[in-house]
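$ run holo --ligand "flavin mononucleotide" --emit tokens
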Amino acid sequence: MNQYKKLFEPITIRNMTLDNRLVMAPMGTNFGEQNGEMNFLHMNYYERRAKGGDGLLIVENACVKYPEGSNGTTQLRIDADNYIPRLYKLCETIHQYGTKIAIQLNHAGASAMESLIGIQPVSASATPNKAGGAIPHALTVEEIYSIADDYAAAAKRAQTIGFDAIEIHAGYSYLISQFLSPLTFVFVITNSFSFEK
Ligand SMILES: Cc1cc2nc3c(=O)[nH]c(=O)nc-3n(C[C@H](O)[C@H](O)[C@H](O)COP(=O)(O)O)c2cc1C
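-- output --
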């Protein structure tokens, strides 16, 4: 045990101090309700991790834009204010144990299934990110800014709710990773293209 002493020491990251360095990675549970809300079974699952003594829990990826950013029917949502009360209850419960809590923000991009979301998925280009996947709509610059605003609104909501931090999902072939991968994003400079805003 002595060789893992550091693991049980507090650590401060900006203005957040964790009791120890045990961090639960975000893991989709499929415990969410069909409408993207948390239920009490779900809260109990996280509470048991906090009771176990984790320094920080990172709640599984939550959708920032519905339906186009959704990755499944029972994914948590944080794209509207009606999700605040139960997430508030979750934060309150976890904080009782001295555990900090973050939530992961996500937009599924081309990983969204057209049959579930009922519209064409979006992505960094019109390239499916999986063999046999739907051809997504290539986002325009204005649409990219609009999704950035959705992330910002979700982050603000997370702060209002009482989360101690957020994590941005940029892996697993979801929207942000579609911009990072040369397989799904080709950067074309045109006269009308500008990242300044
Ligand atoms: C069932 C399951 C759901 C997961 N959901 C997410 C998720 O929502 N967000 C994420 O970034 N990673 C997710 N992951 C990945 C884990 O957070 C973790 O990175 C991965 O299991 C590797 O960690 P390990 O090396 O400790 O096993 C998931 C993993 C599993 C097994």
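-- notes --
The chain has a mean pLDDT of 93.
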